[in-house]
Each structure stands twice: as structure tokens, then as C-alpha cells.
Specification:
The model has no long low-confidence stretch (mean pLDDT about 90). By secondary structure, this protein is mainly β. The protein is about 10% helix and about 50% strand. The longest helix has 8 residues. The protein has a single domain, classed as OB fold (Dihydrolipoamide Acetyltransferase, E2P) (Beta Barrel).
Amino acid sequence: MDRTGKYTVVDACNDHGAITLREHPRNETLYVVEYDDPDVEAELSSLDAGSVVELDLRRAGRRGSAWCAESARSVDPA
């Protein structure tokens, strides 16, 4: 695992299975392009733009902004 944190969905999952996220509080943009298991993919695929999720991520290949989601937990808005 390379990083854990809370992320806001910027663009919901597209036809290629990628989802665009913004990290709290730095506003860095990340792209989840791989998933460790189908349950993680299903969790992220069900989220709409504006949803907040806590993720464990690791790098996906050599591209700096591409990530693989190892786990996902929805965060209730406070």
C-alpha cells in the first residue's frame, strides 16, 4: 500500500473502469485505473461525483497519477 486517505469523486467511473478523484486536503487529482478485487471495483463504480470515499491505494504501473484501489470505504457526509 502506497497511500491511504479520503478522496472526493470528481468524475464517476467511466466505460473503461477508471474513476477520477481529488485528495483531501491537498486537492491532488488521482486516477484509479485498477482494482484488487471485484468488491472494491463495485464499491467505487457505484459512487457519484461528489461522494467521499476512504481508500488504500498503490501505484499502478509507472504513470504517476494512476493508482490501484486495494480497499474502499464510503464516508458519510458530516
